Amino acid sequence: MKSDRQMKNRVIVSRTGKLLLFTDVIVISASLFTAWIIRAQFQGFIYDIRRFSVLFPWVLFLRLLINFIFESYSFTFNSFTNVDITKLFKHNIVATAVLLFLRFFSPISNLRMPLTIIFLEYIFTSFGFFVMRLIIHMIELRDNINSVGYIARVLLWGEVKDIRDTVDIKKLEEKNFIEVKGILNNNSFHWNTEYKKIRVFGNEDQLSMILANDNRISMICFVTFDFVTKSTLTKISEKAKKIRLEIGFIENNTIKTIYPDRILDYYNRNNERQYYF
Questions:
Q1: Do residues 69 and 122 lie in contact, with contact meaning Cβ atoms separated by under 8 Å?
Q2: pLDDT tens-digit profile of 209-229?
Q3: Are 8 and 139 part of one and the same domain?
Q4: Same domain (yes/no): 129, 161
């Protein structure tokens, strides 16, 4: 059985990430070249080709490195929310800040990019990154369309280890006609990772954000109550009653629903049964 630390090891480049890496190289190259041409007002570029040849590999390396650090290539794009978009633009600012620092403080003159090129490159690169990720996201959504029609989307609550040991995701989806769109738990060790292309978002504090970005999510299912606190159940129950979100639990890959008002009673009975045995 794999340990928690082994499960924590993240995929450096997913299958989707390889495609994204290729498109990012194209976006960065085109953005810097376009910014350089505009700065030169379409004249005299050929005379400055030596300086461009020095800066190009450096900017390309810097942007790809930042994306690796922030794990842009480790995720699939089944989910592409407003939070992901905001992070994308923030991560781009990091690389731009490095370029600005070198512009004013670098002892190497060839690394001092003109401010116009720095800002234009940021705008073009950010827009290109956003467009390519959106296209890949739409392609993945199209590939995931099920011919049977509407399928309910659910969130799972549970430790990644428990989900791996007790739930067959494919069988769960086929048996209950659902699509698992995310995982929630209290273990920050696994937040912002993926399990079988399913994003581990965080705890119940992320619930409002997730529902705001996907209004087709209709249920949250508990894999186990072992690591769930009463305060967590209370928050989820109150949220469920306000927005008519169903609550369920999983037994043998079958989802059984519970009324939000009765979730605490079920939780207490479940704990008493475990204590008795």
A1: no
A2: 888 777 778 888 888 776 677
A3: yes
A4: no
